[in-house]
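Could you show me some protein's one-letter sequence and the numbers that encode its backbone in two labelled lines?

___
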Amino acid sequence: MKTMSGKTQAQTGLDAVLAMQAGQRVSVHGIVHTLRDLGDVRFMLLRMPQGALQCVLPGEGYAVREGDAVMAEGEVARDERAPGGAELHVTGLTVLASAAEPMPVPIGKYKMNLSMDTDLALRFVTLRNLRKRAVFKIQEGVVRGFREALQREGFTEIHSPKIVAQNAEGGANLFRMEYFGRRAYLAQSPQFYKQAMVPVYERVFEIGPVFRAEKHNTQRHLNEYTSMDFEMGFIDSFEDIMQMETKVLQNIMAVLEADYAPQLRMLGVTLPKVDSIPAVRFDEAKRMVSEKYGRKIRDPFDLEPEEEQLISRLFAEDYGSEFVFVTHYPSKKRPFYAADDPQDPRYTLSFDLLFRGLEVTTGGQRIHDYGEQVNKLIRKGMNPEDFAGYLMIHKYGTCPHGGLGLGLERLTSKLVGENNVREACLFPRDQQRIEP
């Protein structure tokens, strides 16, 4: 009988190899990323978790192709022309697993210049491209920064169900499903569960998938995306939520700067400054854009994509900020749980965060009074009996609270300079695609 002690085999990573002195011997493993044959010598780029290691092979003696998993042994040589300033002169190579066919696309190129359809159809392969891989390492850093900041602020991480009996937004954009003879839906948001957990832990957050059955095919929408949510109790106003998000974004940028410099350099990313983020009322933002850019206000109740871009442009040009909070959205366009502004109930104590022309966050203060919540449901033409479970939060006591949802793919795409949110989603789901 065998027993497991928890001891694992030490692996030599790329960073360790690049730090070695010339002449040191080492054994590494990885996937053959590219091969370049110069006749008497071949260069093999070995793809490893932290990046790629340049290896020098004799012209003959090793049968290897792109995509093979290998174990390489050899001697470290210092060469400033090599990535990272060092390369491995291989003296022994073992193929651990062989690729059956040549690569269908040139993953070794910095930019593969593929159409979106080709890229997504071959996603299992195209994600091996070093540039694409860097996007998702940066995305990892975004998640790390979000989680770490909230944990330091006393938030508890939760995991809410994604099969639900009610929708959280009051709209019709739901994926319906049969659930053992009953009607169920894929969750649009963890909203109800976040609010339910405020009386339990006071401050909670969740990072998980949400589903929107919206029939559109744009560069900014996905039907399944990752939402980074938090909810916090005992707030004085919805501005407490904006302050917390600002602190979270500051930590995200600090984590990226400290631990993801190679990926940022590879993609040419300049991180935005988040020392402070300006806030402007919804109606004032519309007026400012209309006056500065001569754009007529067409929809008084919502922001059109072009308006979001112009608001971001205005605040970047006039205030030096790539982020801007737009506050006090009209009640007509906000969900039933959004708290109305007591000074003017036509507006809500809510906000969106715009970043480089795109809305990346929606948040605000929630209604915490039972009677007020019931009355707003009725005013919006909704039946409170349909929300009996949700209303238990209010009926049995909660506190002033609020929160937000931050779209991971949208934030990542704008950080790395991509216009299509699909570039920041490993395996996008939209109207046309449910595979791979």
The chain has twelve helices and 18 strands. Residues 290 and 296 are 6 Å apart (CA to CA). The two ends are 41 Å apart (CA to CA). The mean pLDDT is 95.
